[in-house]
Design goal:
Blueprint: E1 12-18, E2 25-30, E3 38-47, H1 52-59, E4 70-71, E5 75-83, E6 95-99, E7 107-111, E8 115-117, H2 124-127, H3 131-143, E9 151-155, H4 160-171, E10 176-181, H5 187-192, E11 197-200, H6 206-213, E12 219-224, H7 228-234, E13 238-246, H8 259-264, E14 268-271, H9 279-287, H10 293-298, E15 306-311, H11 315-324, E16 330-334
Parallel strand pairs: 9-10, 9-12, 10-11, 12-13, 13-14, 15-16
Antiparallel strand pairs: 1-2, 1-4, 3-5, 3-7, 3-16, 5-6, 6-8
Helix pairs in contact: 3-4
The structure holds NADP nicotinamide-adenine-dinucleotide phosphate.
Residues 49-50, 132, 136, 156, 158-162, 181-183, 186, 225-226, 247-251, 272-275 line the site of NADP nicotinamide-adenine-dinucleotide phosphate.
Length: 335
């Protein structure tokens, strides 16, 4: 698990700074020091998230933004470069990945409990696109009380985290994974990551199709990334005593639901937002990945979809790609 290329951290590092204008600026900033309970990671690659552009726009002082400078980014992969006091079992050189603010930088400081081990053969440029998806989808499955042999419906399954969730559900023994997309052209993508049945919303009725492929019973667990009408339609497609977990609101936060569907089926509805999870809960969520999920990653059963990988010096192209809305999967920057 160690990488012998680790060296003493320098004083300055390259980082993408927001809050100065419309775009990030690649600048020299001070390398952070790990405090008590923290580790310093030499970051080799960082992946974009759908929060990156909104954060940049909100901070843009040339367009009414707050103008507070920040190092951008959330997901990283590299190796431990320094270990603070009381920072668990980590050692310099351990291969890691994780999700933490200020990840678009050559060095990242993280709470040692939030760092995920990176399998030896997993390139940082691939690993960096996994952590948020892993913790979110596994956290949602855990919230739903998912167990091997249950059926899962993932809505908005072509989303970055949704694709990871489909693979994870299969790797953890789901009997059937049903995945939705609005686009017929993306059916093959969902099949390729292991979806047993793909529903193209708009062409097919979500509720009717799920009930028909589950012999009228409905699925045990819904991982909903879409909200809106899709969330409403997933309720009567859920088995009695089943669990519906809202993860994302791709179609907007409002949903008008039929409470009869909820009540008659004794459904359990949950909302998760791991960006707002309290530290002690997050430590459990990350630790929960170790027994089954990280081994499935090691076996190659869970991989992120990556649109393209560029050096961080091409950050303007990265922002342009994100703004285009054409990216199919994560855009990765290498350091
Ligand atoms: N709860 C948490 O802790 C947590 C953590 C991370 C992300 N999230 C949320 O989870 C969602 C997915 O995140 P992501 O970064 O993985 O997303 P993403 O990759 O940007 O999602 C892209 C996909 O979203 C689908 N989509 C876009 N607009 C849609 C709409 N109006 N209706 C239905 N589908 C739509 C598209 O699927 P098709 O074209 O195939 O339909 C597209 O493939 C987001 O809402 C995000 O905020 C939540």
């Amino acid at each position: 698990m160690s990488d012998s290329t680790s060296t003493t951290p320098p004083e300055k590092m390259k980082a993408l700074v927001g809050g100065r204008g419309k775009d990030w600026v690649l600048d020299d900033v001070t390398v952070p020091e790990p405090g008590t309970g923290e580790v310093l990671v030499r970051n080799r690659a960082a992946s974009t998230n759908n929060a990156d552009l909104p954060m940049l726009a909100e901070a843009d002082p040339t367009n009414g933004g707050h103008g507070k400078e920040f190092v951008a980014g959330f997901e990283y992969a590299g190796e431990i470069a320094a270990v603070g006091d009381n920072a668990g079992e980590w050692s310099v050189g351990d291969l890691v990945m994780g999700s933490v603010p200020s990840a678009f930088a050559e060095y990242v400081v993280a709470d040692h409990r939030f760092v995920q081990p990176r399998p030896t053969d997993l390139d940082p440029a691939v690993a960096c696109a996994l952590p948020t998806g892993l913790l979110t989808e596994h956290g949602a499955l855990t919230t739903a009380g998912f167990t091997s042999g249950q059926s899962v419906l993932s809505t908005g399954a072509t989303s970055g985290i949704g694709l990871i969730g489909v693979q994870m559900a299969k790797a953890l023994g789901a009997s059937t994974v049903i995945a939705t997309t609005r686009s017929a052209a993306k059916q093959e993508l969902l099949k390729s990551v292991g979806a047993d049945i793909v529903i193209v919303t708009g062409d097919e009725d979500l509720t009717e199709t799920v009930l028909s492929v589950t012999d009228g019973r409905g699925v045990d667990v819904v991982l909903d990334h879409v909200a809106g009408q899709t969330f409403a339609d997933s309720l009567p497609a859920t088995a009695e005593d089943g669990h519906v977990v809202n993860i994302g609101r791709l179609a907007g936060p409002q949903s008008t639901i039929d409470l009869d569907a909820l009540s008659y089926r004794h459904l359990n509805v949950h909302g998760v937002s791991f960006g707002f999870t309290r530290d002690w809960e997050m430590a459990d969520i990350i630790a929960g990945l170790l027994p089954e999920v990280i081994p499935a990653v090691t076996r190659g059963e869970i991989r992120p979809k990556i649109d393209q990988t560029l050096p961080v010096t091409d950050f303007l192209l990265v922002a342009e790609r994100l703004r285009s809305g054409d990216a199919q999967g994560k855009v990765v920057m290498t350091f």
